[in-house]
Structure formats: structure tokens, C-alpha cells
């Protein structure tokens, strides 16, 4: 049985940890509101961009001269998997869930005989994936120095992704991130970035449905608009994924630190009971020894 001194040290140590977890919970809660507002503000634009591109793409997919970002390279032998995670831990299963989904997808691609390339955004995902797929990771984006995420940060990553596609280094690009739903729930999301996903039966009727059933005349023509919007859409979707990740990370951290704080409180209560019982037992033992000694005299 541990001594009273050991128990006292343990209790003080847990109390110190509890103060840290409580402070981290409060910091995460303060950051969560801003991150959530940014993620929710980006959703309508990103979703509408997808709908517009789906509608336009469905009408020009079969035409000659369509953008490779829309129709693809004609094959899917090489896939670029972009895994967005956090730079810091202590956020529950946030990083684990993203990496788990990416790992399953990567194993399926490799089992199908395809070549995979991995681009990691955030070191936590990289630290896990490199154990199994270290030779397939082509780059790691360090986001630790970015205090406030901006569109320019996502655009820099998108430009590199697009440049690789233009050089023919891959055929399909897929992004993994966590979509924020609440502080308790973050949904792991897999989104194909390149080529832009189109309905299975792309036709003009479906294109009209995606645009609200209205007929539109475009100036310039659809092809010229797509040439401008398709690269922009890659940056927009990456930016959206990073914002969703930022909100999900703070939500997961706040929940994890709240659980840790409550668990520390339970441990302190348990250790305090053990300490008091041990102390009482020692006092009783000393009294018995004193009484026994007195009677012996």
C-alpha cells in the first residue's frame, strides 16, 4: 500500500493536471465559436460552387475540349490522397478517425493494384500514416505557424495540387477531413476534388435541376467559365475542409478536456478517500501501540 506521502504527492499531481485540462477546455471553447462561425460561413459558398459546377459540367462533359479537371485523364491508375489533420493532439478521436478512414481507403486502392500518393496537411496525420505508408507520402504541409487560417493558405496547397495534376503525376485527388456538426460529433468526410464529380447520368435536364430548374445563358460560354471556376473550386473545397477541420478540432478538444477534467475529479475523490482511510488506520495503529505499551508497564 502506498504511504501517506506518496498519496499526497499523487493527489497534488492530479490536481495540477486537472487545472491544466480545465484551462485547455476553456481555451478550446473560446476558439470553437470563431472556428464554427468561419466553417458555417464557408459552407453555402462551397456548396453552391459544387452545384454550379455540377450543372455546367453535366452540359459540357461530352463536348470536345472539355477541361481535364472535369472529365479526368481517362484513367484512375494513380490517386492523390490528401489527409487533413491537426498540428496538436489532446483532441480525442479527431485525428484518429480521419486517419482511420484514409488508411482504409489507401489499403483498398493498393489491394486493387493502384498507385497511391499521400499529401498530409498537419503533422498528426503524418506521424501515424508514415508508419505504414511512409514511402508513399510525397509532402507534409506544416500549418503550425498559421494563427488565423485564410483562403490564401488553402490556395497555396491547391496550386501545388493542380500543378501536379497538370504534370500528369496522378489521375484522381481525394480529400479527407472532419466535418463539424457539434462539439460532440465530427463527421469524417471523403471528398473527391479532381476530377469534379458529376451525376452518373449527366445530361441537360440534370444540369438544369442543379441550377434550380431555371435556364441560364452564359457569357462567356460554359467552357470558358469552367476553365476559370474549376481551379478555383479546388482551392475553395480545400479551404472549406480546413475550416471544418479547425472547428472539429476545437470541438473535439473541448469535449476531451471536459472528460479529462471530470475524470481527474473522480480520481482525486478516490485518492482522497484512500488517503483518509490510510491516515485513520495509521492513527489507530499508533493508539493501539501506545495503549499496549502503557498496559505492559
TrEMBL record:
Q: Which UniProt keywords apply?
A: ATP synthesis, Cell membrane, CF(1), Hydrogen ion transport, Ion transport, Membrane, Transport
One term under GO cellular component: proton-transporting ATP synthase complex
- Please give the InterPro entries that the UniProt record associates with this protein: ATP_synth_F1_ATPase_gsu (IPR035968), ATP_synth_F1_gsu (IPR000131), ATP_synth_F1_gsu_CS (IPR023632)
> Which CDD domains does the annotation name?
F1-ATPase_gamma (cd12151)
Q: What is the lineage of its organism?
A: Bacteria, Pseudomonadati, Pseudomonadota, Alphaproteobacteria, Kordiimonadales
* Any Pfam family matching the protein: ATP-synt
**For this UniProt entry, what is the primary localization, expressed as one broad class?**
membrane
What does this protein do, in the record's words?
Produces ATP from ADP in the presence of a proton gradient across the membrane. The gamma chain is believed to be important in regulating ATPase activity and the flow of protons through the CF(0) complex.
Topology of this chain in the membrane: Peripheral membrane protein
Instruction: Return one Gene Ontology term, BP aspect.
Output: proton motive force-driven plasma membrane ATP synthesis
Q: Where in the cell is it found?
A: Cell membrane; Membrane
Gene name, Swiss-Prot/TrEMBL? atpG
User: What Gene Ontology terms describe what this protein does at the molecular function level?
Assistant: ATP binding; proton-transporting ATP synthase activity, rotational mechanism
Q: Which protein is depicted?
A: ATP synthase gamma chain
Quaternary data: F-type ATPases have 2 components, CF(1) - the catalytic core - and CF(0) - the membrane proton channel. CF(1) has five subunits: alpha(3), beta(3), gamma(1), delta(1), epsilon(1). CF(0) has three main subunits: a, b and c.
Family as reported in the entry's similarity comment: Belongs to the ATPase gamma chain family.
Amino acid at each position: 500500500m502506498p504511504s501517506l506521502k506518496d498519496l499526497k504527492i499523487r493527489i497534488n499531481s492530479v490536481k495540477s493536471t486537472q487545472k491544466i485540462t480545465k484551462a485547455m477546455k476553456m481555451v478550446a471553447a473560446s476558439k470553437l465559436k470563431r472556428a464554427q462561425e468561419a466553417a458555417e460561413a464557408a459552407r453555402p459558398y462551397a456548396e453552391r460552387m459544387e452545384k454550379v459546377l455540377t450543372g455546367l459540367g453535366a452540359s459540357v462533359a461530352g463536348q470536345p475540349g472539355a477541361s481535364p479537371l472535369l472529365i479526368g485523364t481517362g484513367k484512375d491508375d494513380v490517386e492523390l490522397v490528401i489527409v487533413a489533420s491537426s498540428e496538436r493532439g489532446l483532441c480525442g478521436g479527431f485525428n484518429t478517425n480521419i486517419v482511420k478512414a484514409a488508411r482504409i481507403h489507401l489499403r483498398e486502392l493498393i489491394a486493387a493494384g493502384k498507385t497511391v500518393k499521400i499529401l498530409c496537411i498537419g503533422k498528426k496525420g503524418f506521424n501515424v500514416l508514415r508508419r505504414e505508408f511512409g514511402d508513399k507520402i510525397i509532402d507534409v504541409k506544416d500549418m503550425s505557424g498559421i494563427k488565423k487560417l485564410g483562403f490564401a493558405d488553402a490556395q497555396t496547397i491547391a496550386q501545388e495540387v493542380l500543378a501536379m495534376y497538370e504534370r500528369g503525376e496522378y489521375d484522381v485527388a481525394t480529400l479527407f477531413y472532419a466535418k463539424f456538426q457539434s462539439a460532440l460529433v465530427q463527421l469524417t468526410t471523403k471528398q473527391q476534388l479532381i476530377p469534379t464529380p458529376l451525376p452518373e447520368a449527366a445530361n441537360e435536364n440534370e444540369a438544369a435541376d442543379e441550377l434550380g430548374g431555371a435556364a441560364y445563358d452564359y457569357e462567356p460560354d460554359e467552357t470558358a467559365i469552367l476553365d476559370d471556376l474549376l481551379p478555383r473550386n479546388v482551392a475553395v473545397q480545400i479551404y472549406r475542409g480546413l475550416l471544418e477541420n479547425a472547428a472539429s478540432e476545437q470541438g473535439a478538444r473541448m469535449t476531451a478536456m471536459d472528460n479529462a477534467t471530470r475524470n481527474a475529479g473522480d480520481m482525486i475523490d478516490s485518492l482522497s478517500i484512500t488517503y483518509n482511510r490510510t491516515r485513520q488506520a495509521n492513527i489507530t495503529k499508533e493508539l493501539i501501540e501506545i495503549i499496549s505499551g502503557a498496559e505492559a508497564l
